Amino acid sequence: MHSFTLIFLMVLAAGLAIELWLLARHQRHIRDHRGEVPEAFASQLTLEQHQKAADYSDAKIRVGRVSLVYGSLLLLVWTLGGGINTLDQWWSTTGLGPIGAGLALIFSLFFISGTLDLPFTIYRTFVIEERFGFNRSTARRFIVDLLLQTLLGIALGAPLLLVILWLMQEAGSYWWLAAWVVWIVFMLFITWIFPTVIAPIFNKFTPLDDENLKNRIQALLERCGFASKGIYVMDGSKRSGHGNAYFTGFGKNKRIVFYDTLIDSLTEQEVEAVLAHELGHFKKHHVKKGMALSFVMTLVGLALLGWLSTQPWFYHALGVERSSNALALTLFMLVIPVFTQFLTPISAWFSSKNEFEADDFAVDQTGSEPLITALVKLYRENASTLTPDPLYSAFHDSHPPAPVRVQHLSSKIRQTT
User: pTM of the predicted model, to two decimals?
Assistant: First the structure.
């Protein structure tokens, strides 16, 4: 057995074991605290609502555990089991040429993988989400969404992969630098067109027509120095009962978007507080910093791929008989998450730090109480658990646990009294 094969298997097994252990801790912690609403929320949530959130999380954990093991086994089938090698051998006989066959290899791999993962998506949507009252999608809408996502992935992904494969073939040993520039341009382009071209494919966006709320938001935007191309309400309720708010795009193409479910469940002051939190991410440059970090990590990844693509052992150790640009790219995309999953706690820590900073900004704009009540309502309406396992949360959650976050906001009230 090649040494890298052994390393790959050991890291994969270690990652899977850690994830299963964390899930077990998380599930046990939620079950142990199911019988009583946390004291900080006792006046705002009933025991029935708290138990619904616990049971919802428990159901997601159970299917997540199966999906995790299934995904690891499928990765082994694709790599050491010879799945990718078989696909490559078939496409290499079609006469499409290195780039055409490589493009076909990548798309067929992800199409098959997506199809094999489809039962989990269906179960989550039509069993778990349905059981807890969140699913509002129909089988027809689910199928249409799936087809649209596939066509959009091909329309956007094919040109990008075509250019990258061409650069790998023609641009010499430093092709990865050129590919990095192409990736940056592509991501900026997608971010720019997303609000006006991509998002409307799946949802309907209508200008906010509540004049009182609109005036309140406009005043907040002026105080924060935030310019947008409009405030819109998205028909998120046609697929899910979950609520959210976000801003999207960049430059002069920014949009503020509220889910209709959020507008229906929060007061005007609470909506303003939620938006102030989102604007806090903008004012604290979290989006720009995240994008810059993403670009740096992509550069490092492409440089690593540039080196690995020239190493015969990289292919042989992962169950592939020959080397090619498409195979290098495919193996890298499949295998690199196995090694980078251990960076998740670092990412979660930075994300939580950003959430606290955005909360602090919102407090300066609207005060603590509207954001606290809005968050409690969102936790309740989305059936988010109030009692996550601390270690699991530190490893995975992009937001601080509800009690920690509310305590932080409550401390701001005490500081001003």
Answer: 0.89
* Sheet (strand 245-248) strand order: 205-207, 231-234, 255-259, 245-248
pLDDT at 112: 95
Sign of CA dihedral 275, 281, 283, 288: negative
- From CA 135, how far away is CA 118, in angstroms rounded? 17
Q: What is the 3-state secondary structure (H, E, C) of 11-61?
A: HHHHHHHHHHHHHHHHHHHHHHCCCCCCHHHCCCCCHHHHHHHHHHHHHHH
Instruction: Compute φ and ψ for 383, nearest 5 degrees.
Output: 55, 45
State the catalytic residues: 278
Q: Which stretches of the chain drop beneath a pLDDT of 50?
A: 417
pLDDT at 253: 66
Domain boundaries, the chain: 3-135+306-346
pLDDT tens-digit map of 278-308: 889 888 989 889 999 999 999 999 999 999 9
